[in-house]
Recover the amino acids of this structure.
């Protein structure tokens, strides 16, 4: 703490303050989050998790991490200062005047890149909202506040938490289903909608009306002057069944809106992304061993040494010695793949996220649960939100629905101490990331039951 000079208080959150600081040895200003470490085991762990997860994220659209340390019952996280403030403030500054379309698209495409980085690391943010998205003085988007984020395969105790901001929470959370990557997509849809309209998509006067609107996915359409691709994207991001929502990968690469977003991506990001995607596309299709078999076979048997017929004579004549050498060595497919190639392909196991349970080697219970969720969610929400839940929520004013809620499962068995965050390497294997729910919390926690327990203790 002594190595920093505090310049001012940037703001106060529910767990502490955010300070603008300058290291004694440098000129760059940083934000230092000062978080009171709660005595309760779950709270301290989730505070530490913010530092651990933020330190793992290195991306131009995610708030950069400098260091973290503990002192006198507080956790300090030093991070990049975003002088443009948060997106909620920026939206409010508009005073009702709509943002230009190119600003919306530029900011949104940067949010997507940041989210893709998080999801590629198999981390769920779980609290994406305009208040947690920042702007630099160059108007670059930075995703921040990893206080609610969770990584897959983290120790059981850490997953036993519900987090979220009710206005941004997706239908499956209200339905007590596990949080998954598409729940982040829903929240991102809420932010996109706010950028487009300066309003929240699910405005309501009561908790019941809020939950019903969210669970039915009913919102006022975007203004008609906005391109149809945005209308189409919002419609998909607000699909009540998470499996029908596009993944962040799909939004960036193959959704109707992708072209529009690409126009607004920084050039270097685009070329990096395209190269990576091309490689991924090739790698994703086959399991490694099968790929090796195919490669070996192709190397030995099924390629013919020929010049390519597409090169015209003139261009060939004009090309350098070197290029001519390369072309001559180029190979092309024999007309029909041989039976052996077909045999190898037939045996190869194509990995698609449509078959997530098999691809990830999960057990049948999980697959059954998926089917069950699917069955449930295909139906329109036509039931009332649970009475008990409503009666619990009714005690909190609806204005609180813009705040982050954290409910920990009380677990005496888990000792307190620094959190270890594990990552399941198998889940980081490249694979196709299409329209399905790809990953969710490992260990679902019935937060509604926990809320009831807390309530019954207090009455
Ligand atoms: N990296 C940052 N750069 C600039 N401002 C920041 C940064 N991080 C946080 N802030 C600002 O500091 C204030 C406090 O942030 P903090 O994350 O501590 O709490 P919060 O998000 O407002 O509330 P809560 O913790 O309850 O969700 C907010 O106004 C936020 O906009």
């Amino acid at each position: 703490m002594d190595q920093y000079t505090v310049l001012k208080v940037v703001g106060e959150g529910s767990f502490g303050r955010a300070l603008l600081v300058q290291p004694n040895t440098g000129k760059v200003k940083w934000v230092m989050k000062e978080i009171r470490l709660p005595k309760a085991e779950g709270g301290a762990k989730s505070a530490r998790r913010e530092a651990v997860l933020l330190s793992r994220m290195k991306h131009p659209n995610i708030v950069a991490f400098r260091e973290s340390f503990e002192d006198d019952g507080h956790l300090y996280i030093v991070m990049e200062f975003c002088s443009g403030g948060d997106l909620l403030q920026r939206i409010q500054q508009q005073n009702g005047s709509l943002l230009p379309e190119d600003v919306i698209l530029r900011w949104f495409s940067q949010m997507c890149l940041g989210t893709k980085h998080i999801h590629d690391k198999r981390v769920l943010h779980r609290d994406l909202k305009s208040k947690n998205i920042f702007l630099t003085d160059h108007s670059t988007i930075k995703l921040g506040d990893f206080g609610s984020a969770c990584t897959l395969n983290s120790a059981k105790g850490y997953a036993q938490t519900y987090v979220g901001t009710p206005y941004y929470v997706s239908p499956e959370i209200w339905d007590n289903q596990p949080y998954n990557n598409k729940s982040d997509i829903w929240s991102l849809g809420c932010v996109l909608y706010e950028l487009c309209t300066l309003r929240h998509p699910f405005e309501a006067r009561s908790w019941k009306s809020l939950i019903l609107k969210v669970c039915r996915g009913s919102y006022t359409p975007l203004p008609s002057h906005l391109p149809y691709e945005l209308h189409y994207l919002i419609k998909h991001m607000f699909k009540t069944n998470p499996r029908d929502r596009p993944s962040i990968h799909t939004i960036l690469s193959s959704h109707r809106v992708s072209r529009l977003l690409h126009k607004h991506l920084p050039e270097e990001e685009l070329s990096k992304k395209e190269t990576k995607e091309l490689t991924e596309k090739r790698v994703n299709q086959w399991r490694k061993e099968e790929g090796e078999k195919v490669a070996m076979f192709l190397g030995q048997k099924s390629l013919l040494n020929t010049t390519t017929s597409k090169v015209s004579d003139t261009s060939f004549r004009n090309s350098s010695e070197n290029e001519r050498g390369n072309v001559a060595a180029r190979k092309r497919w024999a007309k029909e793949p041989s039976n052996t190639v077909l045999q190898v392909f037939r045996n190869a196991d194509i990995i698609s996220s449509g078959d997530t349970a098999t691809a990830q080697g999960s057990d049948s219970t999980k697959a059954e649960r998926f089917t069950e969720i699917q069955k449930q969610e295909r139906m329109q929400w036509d039931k009332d939100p649970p009475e008990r839940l409503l009666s619990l929520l009714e005690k909190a004013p609806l204005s609180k629905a813009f705040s982050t809620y954290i409910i920990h499962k009380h677990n005496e068995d888990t000792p307190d101490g620094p959190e270890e965050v594990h990552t399941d390497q198998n889940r980081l294997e490249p694979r196709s990331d299409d329209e399905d729910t790809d990953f969710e919390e490992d260990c679902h926690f019935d937060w509604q039951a926990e809320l009831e327990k807390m309530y019954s203790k207090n009455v």
The mean pLDDT is 73.
